[in-house]
Amino acid sequence: MLTNKQSMLDQARIRLLYYGLLLVFVALGIILTNVLVEDQVVLATVAGFMLLSMLILFKYLTWCADWKSVTHALIAIGTLVNIIDVFVVIQKVDIIAIQLVLIITIFSFYTVGQKWGLIYSILNLLPVIVFMLYGYKNMYIIDFVPEKVDQSTIIICVIANFVLLLFIHNHFYKTYLSNIKQLKQTSEEQSNLNYTLETAIDKAEKSSQAKSEFLSTMSHEIRTPLNAVIGMTNLLIMSNPRPDQTENLEILKFSASNLLAIVNDVLDFNKIESGKIVFENIRFNLVELMNSICGGQSIKAHEKGLDFKLLVDDVLQNKVIIGDPTRITQVIFNLVSNAIKFTKQGCITVRVALFEDRHDRVTIHFSVKDTGIGIEPDSLDAIFEPFTQESVTTTRQYGGTGLGLAIVKRLLELKGVKMQVNSQPGQGSEFSFNMEFLVSTEVPVESSVKLQPTTQQDNDLSHLKILIAEDNVVNTMLMKKLFSKWKIQTSFAENGERAVEQVQYGNFDVILMDLQMPIMNGFEAATEIRKLMDTKKANTPIIALTASALTEIREKVFQSGMNDYISKPFKPEELREKLISMTTEKAV
């Protein structure tokens, strides 16, 4: 009857029922013998009925173990017998009747719960109270002569009822103590498990933090010499080398750029996995963004002899949407880069179409299709796993970390977007997804100011005086060589504090500010410069220089008062354009 699936309370109820039936059976046997000796036929009939009922219930309990049904039947029989005794057999409320009401009340609450315990208590107590109230002012008379219970029967019944009461209370008190001990033991075990879990979580968090710090430190350490390698390579290419030297320099630059891309992929994936990615909501024109993303990629495609098509829905030209252009750039750039890498001949098609327009928001369909090597059906899930490509052969032939698609998938999942892939081996692949954006109520207008054509004189930077705040000796040497080619006057500050001093006592057209410097970093230095009393010096254009991923510090750059930023290693042409732009705006 007892199983491990039963609770401790149910097991206690079954034991109480089992041994209680045995006690009642023994007590009824004694009472039946006594009333037979005293020749009390009616009481003998009632006792015999109850004895037979107890025997049947006991056999049924041991046969099918349906303890709940047996309990209800036992309480119902006890209730019925008590009412018959009070109203028919004895026709009065004596101590035995009171004891029976008390036993049934306690037993029902203990065995069948609060609801049924209350019901059975009322069914037993209410008739007794009604009988007592009626007999208080009236004579209770029926066509049945009440049995006179002799003193020996009363003594036996009272003793038996007290034994039953003691047994019920003692049994459940022991169960209560056992339950308390078990709860205490379970609580201690739970506390130990919680402590073990907290320790494991703490170790995992420290491990994750150490991993993030390691990657951040290593990325900075790798980016710094890479900046020098790529920078010096650009300088040598600008020095009109021989054709054979140009080829070697291009290979050197390509290898360094690939290494930089790998570092960036690892950092991006680490940020996504650690939950440090924050999506921005800023206004931008999607058409301009797509042209910017695909501009450089189309050149790479053409260098491989591939056709490149960018098809953007004309409806989007007049919409200003709200979202995170940096993350969209990251997703599209990775998809297009993959398409170019795995396509030997044919065409790369990037399509952006309006899927749904609901006035205040739009759903846009993005698609990148290639005519490359395609993907086997059983490898479609694997390509989105980190550090995984379709096969070892693919990795050896095409290279790469296998992080590009993993980054794309994680970024889209964070926005609740699912990537769709259609691919046929040997024919190509198409990656597509639908993303929802809020639409700005602003109507894009063309600028009323027409830019004048740039002349050779405008491109002359020899009149500029630039302050460079940089603590790395290699970077300082690199920038000194670069600016000497452009005939720009330069001054150098080894930390932020020194940069602020030089701005106070000198005049500069532009400040290039490294962000990570000793004593005073670039953010603090920019803030101090903006506080200067001399408004002309306080408004000097500042361009941030950093080897870190600017996607997570861009907002901080602008908050500190800087005008623009450029990531190291930078392209000389990009820096030149920013200098021209800054000085032109300042002149205006």
Describe this entry's structure for a reader.
With 588 residues, the protein is of the alpha/beta class. It has 16 helices and twelve strands. Strands 1, 2, 3, 4, 5, 6 and 7 form a seven-stranded mixed sheet that branches. Strands 9-8-10-11-12 form a five-stranded parallel sheet, with helices on both faces. The N and C termini lie far apart (95 Å).
* Separation, N- and C-terminal Cα atoms: 95 Å
Largest sheet: 7 strands, mixed
Tell the overall outline: elongated
Order of helices and strands: HHHHHHEHEEHEEHHEEEHEHEHHEHEH
Proportion of residues in helical segments: 55-70%
Radius of gyration: 45 Å
Strand content: 5-15%
Features:
588 residues, alpha/beta, seven-stranded mixed sheet, five-stranded parallel sheet
Offer a quick outline of the entry.
The protein is α/β, with parallel strands linked by helices. About 60% of the residues lie in helices and about 10% in strands.
Task: Please give the structural blueprint.
Layout: H1 8-37, H2 41-64, H3 67-89, H4 95-137, H5 151-238, H6 243-273, E1 282-284, H7 286-303, E2 307-312, E3 321-323, H8 325-341, E4 347-357, E5 361-369, H9 392-398, H10 404-414, E6 420-424, E7 428-439, E8 465-469, H11 473-485, E9 489-493, H12 496-505, E10 510-514, H13 522-530, H14 535-538, E11 542-546, H15 554-559, E12 564-567, H16 572-587
Parallel strand pairs: 2-4, 8-9, 8-10, 10-11, 11-12
Antiparallel strand pairs: 1-3, 3-7, 4-5, 5-7, 6-7
